Amino acid sequence: MNRKRNIREENLHNILLSKYLPSEELNRSFDTMDLKGSFSEKIFLETYKSLEVRETFPMINFNVSFMEFGRFCVLLDESIHFNRYRAKTLRSSFYENLTSFPLMKYRSACRKYEVECLKSGTSKPAWTNYEAEIHFGSSQNSGDLGLNGSSGWKLTAFKDFIIDLMARQKKIRLLRISVWEDLMINKRLKKFNEMLMSPGKAETELILKYVDRKVVGLYADDF
Q: CB neighbours (10 Å) of residue 94?
């Protein structure tokens, strides 16, 4: 079962539904065992080990709450997705040939907005949870990013990497939208984080044009 969308995700979904036909064809279950023995196993394990792990091969199964449409699907990345651990996963060579992924912008956001991640991600289960501690050990005290830091943040970052890696393997054209991406509206830059709280006509039109451009870019990647 998909989790309930927050207000920004729900508003984005409604905006996209105004133009794109919804679809429910994808298998939303992602299982890392599908990577065992594949061409992607080595790069997968390299990224896992970069997060200071406890297991040799992580067995992780989870469902992904895609906003799915006929030609592509969308994930909105909130502030919890931008921190030092996601930055580590973004160093993977996997991203070097993924031309549609805004790699430099995501790396920059991980550096610039970790403080925002701290504002919303220091309580359970975001900071620590049972599954995260199986893979990454115990977390430090809430908000302490020294030593082992946050096992919950590490798991979120690693799952983001798994989604990107396996989406390509499954030939899913995935568009990630960062809440820290900004667009020019009425002669000033507004971030998706702000626009999606209460989008009007101008915001809706700009967001649809933005998605149109990005969807075209998804087809630049050779599947």
A: 19
Please give the structure tokens belonging to residue 156: 């979120």
Distance CA 52, CA 135 (A): 9
DSSP string, 56-101: SS---EEE---EEBSS-EEEEE-GGG-SHHHHHHTTSGGGGG-TTS
Three-point CA angle 219, 16, 203, nearest 5°: 110
Cα gap 96→170, rounded to integer Å:
19
Query: Each residue of 29-38: pLDDT tens digit?
Result: 999 999 999 9
| Residue ranges covered by each domain of the chain | 7-218
Rounded percentage of the chain residues whose pLDDT exceeds 90: 87
Residue-wise pLDDT tens digits, 104-163: 999 999 999 999 999 999 999 999 999 999 999 999 999 999 999 999 999 999 999 999
- Any bridge partners for residue 62, and if so which? 30
Q: Is 171 left (phi over 0), alpha (psi -120 to 50) or beta?
A: left
Q: What angle do CA 146, 148, 152 make, to 5 degrees?
A: 110
